[in-house]
Design goal:
The chain is α/β, with parallel strands linked by helices. The chain has helices spanning 56-66, 82-85, 88-92, 105-115, 183-198, 202-214, 234-244, 263-278, 294-303, 320-331, 351-361, 379-392; strands at residues 3-4, 9-11, 14-16, 21-22, 27-28, 33-35, 38-41, 45-48, 74-76, 100-103, 120-123, 129-131, 136-141, 151-155, 160-164, 221-224, 252-257, 283-288, 306-310, 338-345, 365-366, 371-374. Strand 10, helix 4 (105-115) and strand 11 (120-123) form a beta-alpha-beta unit. It binds MU-OXO-diiron (FEO).
Amino acid sequence: MAKKISEKITWVGKKDWELKKFHGDEFTTINGSSYNSYLIRDKKTVLIDTAWLPYDKEFVANLEDEIKLEKIDAVIQLHGEVDHSGALVELMNKLPKDTPIYCTANGVKSLKGQYHKDWNFNIVKTGDKLNLGETTLTFIEAPMLHWPDTMFAYLDKENALFSTDGFGQHLASEFMYADEVDQNILFNEALKYYANILAPFSMMVTRKINEIWGMNLKIDMICPSHGLIWRKDLNKIIEKYLKWANNYKENQITIIYDTMWNDTRKMAEAIARGIKKKDSSVEIKILNTAKNDKTDVLTEVFKSKMILVGSPTVNNGYLYSIAGILEMIKGMKLKNKKAVAFGSYGWSGEAVKLIGEFLRSAGFEILNDGIRCLWTPDKDMERELEKYGEELV
Ligand code: FEO
């Protein structure tokens, strides 16, 4: 149902309580999500973004309940990904053929690439303005936040920044505003979103925030394309973003491993005991990558100052879940984090060396050659593993 959020802005998006996986099977969204779309009614009426494809008909039907579609003068597509553009075909079929779509040059590529339509694209760049009557929209390109086609838009007088995926959270709520929901869940989802989607682009995040703040815009509301709208204490989320973008780490060490017959698990636990013995203040997370959700694992890696990655050697390599998570960790392009590898073996024992090499190539500072255990750790080996843990800190 549509919801007025200011004199001229009405939210017309879709709350998706059912969503449990996003980006295919990549991102687990235990709290659902929303596809936020905003209708701005001034002398001109424009629509910012639509909704994910499975909801295209529902989205357009709800929009028709809110406004006669012929009154929409233009569509602003801030970012072409299907979760925001999926209802565009359904919508454009009902709008006059020449209704302009404002987007970046890369936006045209992405929309044409997905929908193969010759719509009336109007390419905009940073600083371009669209006068709506009493208010004006200013476009701000934001490439790689998180796609090359991304842009933000700022509506003066209403002082609203439309930030597409930036500042978003996968969080379905019947509330509209960030200050109305459980703050732990809100910031945890915002962090998860940052770690899993925006982390590789941290340099651009810092630059874009500084650029926008340098424009001296009066911003009373940040309206992202997922989750809740920020309207109070905006500095709180902005400061979090600046912190997360600046080689973020907490006093946390995360031990991730997979195991065939529990030997590598025993190693993980013995090393953890050693770490704890030496530094009782450090938070330790011990996560079996075959049993834990990968979105959560990546979030814990993002928070860590050091990670330990363990696998037994199998077929001269390491286990499937470790291979998968290593690939995802590499994609995060994290900096300023330490790492070591560990694992049990019975015969050839290459896994530890291979994991260490992978982590080095992924940008981690490798502290040593790692530690291996031949077969099952006995008491002596457990003591050695504990000592290894102590030395890490
Ligand atoms: Fe939420 Fe990148 O789309």
